[in-house]
Amino acid sequence: MKYNFDEMIDRTTTDSIKWSPKHLKENFGDEKSLPMWIADMDFRAPQPVIDTLIKRAEHGIFGYGHQSEAFLDSLIAWQERRNGWTIEREWILYTPGIIPALNFIVQSFCIPGDKIIVQSPVYYPFYNIIQNNGCHVVENKLKLKELKYEMDFDQLEDLVKDSRTKLLFLCSPHNPTGRVWTHKELIKLGRICIDNDVMIVSDEIHSDLIYEGHTHIPFAKISDEFANHSIICTSPTKTFNLAGLHVSNIIVKNRKNRNILKHRLETMDIDPGSFATVAQIAAYNEGEEWLSQLLNYLQGNIELIESFVNKRLSGVKFIKPEGTYLAWLDFTELFENYKVLEQFMQSKAKLALDEGYIFGSGGEGFERINFACSRELLKDALERIEKSINLIRGTTISPSS
Ligand SMILES: Cc1ncc(COP(=O)(O)O)c(C=O)c1O
C-alpha cells in the first residue's frame, strides 16, 4: 500500500493540543499560528493499526488489560529485527508513557537532594521531572562543533564523582539535536558512569526514526554489564504516531532494579488500556512498510529544510538530524537576544515552535521545528520565516521592530 503523507488532514476537531486554537492563542499569541511544536506527527497511523483499533472498538467491552504474550512478543520481535537486540519477556514493564516512567524511576532510585545528569540542550520535561521530585539537575552541556553536537566527556568525568549523583538521563537519539550516538560514544559514556556508580536511564523513544548512514544502538545491547547498569525506555508512539494511546515499555534486565520499579508500578495499579495493547501489536507486527515510507518522506523534508536554509535564510544554520523528526535551527547570528527571537517567531512569522532556551543551557537562540508534517505545510513555515526576516532585515532586530 502506498501511503500519502502529502495529505493535509484537519486536526482541530480531535482535541489535539498541537492544533488547539485556544492553546495556540494562550501560548503562542495567535490561534492561527502554524503549529510545528510538540513532537507528534500530522500523519495518519499505519492502516493495520487503524483497522485493528476499529475492530477492537466494535468488540465493545473495555475492561482491564494486561501485558499479554502477544503484546510482549511484538516488542521482542521488533527489537530483534530492527536492532539485533535480544530481550526477554520478564524484563519488560508497561507504563502509559515515558514521562510517567521517568518519574517512577526517579522516585524509585533517588531521594530528594540527589543529582541527575542531563546533556543539554535536551528534551525539556527532563528538568521538571527531576526538580518536581526534589532532585537537582546537573547539566553536562553538549559541545557544538561544525554543526554537530558532541558529548563533553571531560566534564562528565568530574560530574559523576559527586556521591549525590545517582542517574544520568541519556536521550538516545538526542532530542532536539538529532544526534544518533555512536557505539564509541555510548561505550565511553557508559564506562564513566558505571565506574562511578551512576545508573544510565536511556530514553530511546526516537530510536526507530533513524536516517541513512546512522545506526541506533540500544544502550543495553552493548554488553551485559551495560544492561545491568541501565534502564531502557522505549515506545511505539513516536514511530507510529500513537502518543494519544499511551503505551510505552521499560526494559530492565537487572532483576533487583526491575523488582523495585515493578513494585512501584503495582502499587499504582498501572496496566495497559484496551487500545494501547492492540495498537502496539499491530504497529510492531504490521507497521514496517509504513515506517519505511515515512522515513523516505521525512528524508525529503530534511532535504527541503537544508536547501531552503542554505539558499534563502542566510544567517541561519541548520543542524541536520541523524534521527528524529525534529530540526534544530541556529538563529544566534541574526538575534542576539533569544527572547526577541521568540517574539519574532510568534508575532511576525506566526509560527508556534519550541523555543531553544526551554531545552536548557546551550539552547538559547535556537528553534526546534517539528517537520513531521506535509511538505506544503513545512514550506509554508519556512517561507513565513524568510518573509519575516526580509521585512526586518536592514532594521535593528529589537522587540519593537
Ligand atoms: C525524548 C523524549 N522522551 C519522552 C517523550 C514523551 O514521551 P511520552 O509521550 O511517552 O510520555 C518525548 C516526546 O516528545 C521525547 O521527545
Quick tags:
single chain; 401 residues; alpha/beta; Aspartate Aminotransferase, domain 1; Aspartate Aminotransferase, domain 2; 2 domains; seven-stranded mixed β-sheet; 14 helices; 15 strands; globular; binds pyridoxal-5'-phosphate
Question: In words, what does this structure look like?
Answer:
Its cofactor is pyridoxal 5'-phosphate. Keywords: Lyase, Pyridoxal phosphate. It comes from Aneurinibacillus migulanus. It holds the Pfam family Aminotran_1_2. Residues 46-385 form the Aminotransferase class I/classII large domain. 41% of the residues lie in helices and 14% in strands. It is of the alpha/beta class and 401 residues long. It folds into two domains: 21-46 and 289-392, Aspartate Aminotransferase, domain 1 (Alpha-Beta Complex); 61-286, Type I PLP-dependent aspartate aminotransferase-like (Major domain) (Aspartate Aminotransferase, domain 2, 3-Layer(aba) Sandwich). Strands 2-10-9-8-7-3-4 form a seven-stranded mixed beta sheet, with helices on both faces. Helix 4 crosses helix 10. The longest helix is centred in the C-terminal third of the chain and has 25 residues, at 288-312. The mean pLDDT is 96. Residues 39, 97-99, 123, 171, 175, 203, 205, 235, 237, 243, 248 line the site of pyridoxal-5'-phosphate. Pyridoxal-5'-phosphate is lined by residues 39, 97-99, 123, 171, 175, 203, 205, 235, 237, 243, 248.
